[in-house]
Amino acid sequence: MGREDRDDESFDDESDDPKLDDDSSDSLFQTEADVTCPYCGEAVQITLDPDGGEEQEYVQDCEVCCRPWTVHVTYDDEGAADVSVDMTE
Ligand SMILES: [Zn+2]
């Protein structure tokens, strides 16, 4: 323990490019977020998928009223997610 394998010099230590991080699926990325439904106003906790990338947009139904949200997720470089939900047309 304690000795990291740093033989591969083509990887310049930690980079901001998430595409280099194939091995770090257990990272610090936030995997849950509290959002407020734009239709019914209920606070709902949703599960995030960090593997989807730094910026994500997808449609998910509200657990409470079952109407479709457009969910926007943006991860910052510390793995914290900025999440917003909007009504889906
Ligand atoms: Zn709702």
Q: What does this protein look like?
A:
With 89 residues, the protein is an all-beta fold. The protein is 0% helix and 36% strand. The strands form two sheets. Strands 3-4-5 form a three-stranded antiparallel sheet, with no helix packed on it. Strands 1-2 form a two-stranded antiparallel sheet. The mean pLDDT is 84. The protein binds zinc ion (ZN). Zinc ion binds next to loops.
Briefly characterize the structure.
This protein is mainly beta and 89 residues long. It has no helices and five strands.
What structural keywords apply?
two-stranded antiparallel sheet, three-stranded antiparallel sheet, binds zinc ion, 0% helix, 36% strand, mainly beta, 89 residues
- Gyration radius (Cα, Å) is 17 Å
How big a fraction of the residues is strand?
Answer: 35-45%
Bound molecules: zinc ion
Q: Got a strand count?
A: 5
Main β-sheet: number of strands, strand sense, barrel status? 3 strands, antiparallel
Structural class comes to mainly beta
Number of helices: 0
Order of helices and strands: EEEEE
Topology of this structure?
Layout: E1 32-36, E2 43-47, E3 55-61, E4 68-75, E5 81-87
Antiparallel strand pairs: 1-2, 3-4, 4-5
The structure holds zinc ion.
Zinc ion is lined by residues 37, 39-40, 42, 62, 64-65, 67.
